[in-house]
Design brief:
This protein folds into 2 domains: 60 residues, Arc Repressor Mutant, subunit A; 177 residues, Rossmann fold, CATH 3.40.50.1360. Helix content is 39%, strand content 23%. The protein is built from 11 helices and 14 strands. The two termini are 29 Å apart.
């Protein structure tokens, strides 16, 4: 990898996935001497893109996730989220018993399954309201303590209900994918999501390409333990190669 611009792009992609990198590892992956890597890291640090540490570099702390409001999320990356929703719709068949978690991406699944005969469980008031008047869909809303920022029911009572649910497929949104950890901005939401995933035969994560390399507050599951991460077509080749068969 001779061109500096290509090396810099590769380094930043590695950081987006792993959050920290080692000089020795980068040297082997790019087939360049460690002195060149150190010089690259110094230049990237001067541009404010990373922080050098002993033996390597890490992503700046201000790259960590800052949760947006539900209304803000609904206006971001809409076309990419619609791609994901379509892929989810293709995985959902008549008579399926499914769980759909909260999130602006998951709300778009409605357009691709509203004519199917389904049983749907959810802890999202917004998801519930989408399907409540459809006679072909049996919709059940989990109760509990209401978290207004995401329109989600959380806490002890919600978790107790979800422990009794067993679904064929679960579709769960994330705030970030950090390395191989699936993360969310709220611990209580994360605990509920974990319960549902444990009780689902097929586990699907919905995440647009901007979610990769993002660390939110709470790690709720491991990417190796889900069937797939459903994402959009703008995902980089580096990230796709990183997660290999997990990407749809």
């Amino acid at each position: 990898m001779k061109l500096k611009v290509d090396r810099h792009r590769f380094i930043m992609n590695e950081l987006k996935i792993e959050k920290s990198v080692k000089v020795s590892t980068l040297s082997k992956k790019m087939n360049v001497v460690e002195m060149t890597i150190r010089r690259d890291l110094k230049e990237l640090e001067s541009e404010g893109l990373l922080v050098r540490i002993h033996g390597g570099a890490k992503l700046k702390d201000d790259e960590l996730y800052n949760e947006k409001s539900h209304e803000e999320k609904q206006t971001i990356n809409v076309s990419n989220k619609m791609q994901i929703a379509k892929k989810c719709g293709d995985l959902i068949h008549n008579e399926d018993i499914i769980f759909i978690g909260s999130g602006s991406t998951n709300e778009l699944i409605y357009h691709f399954i509203k004519d199917k005969n389904l049983s749907i469980f959810t802890n999202s008031i917004d998801i519930f309201l989408q399907y409540r008047d459809l006679s072909n869909i049996d919709i059940l809303l989990v109760g509990g303590r209401f978290r207004a920022k995401t329109g989600t029911f959380i806490g002890h009572f919600a978790n107790k209900m979800m422990e009794d649910f067993h679904v064929s497929k679960a579709f769960i949104g994330v705030n970030g994918i950090y390395g191989h950890k699936l993360t969310t901005a709220n611990e209580e939401e994360g605990k509920g999501i974990h319960i549902i995933l444990e009780n689902a035969m097929q586990k699907y994560i919905t995440a647009d390409s901007s979610k990769f390399g993002v660390q939110a507050l709470y790690d709720f599951y491991h990417i190796d333990d889900v069937n797939a991460v459903i994402t959009d077509n703008e995902i980089s080749k580096e990230i796709k190669d990183k997660y290999e068969s997990k990407i749809i």
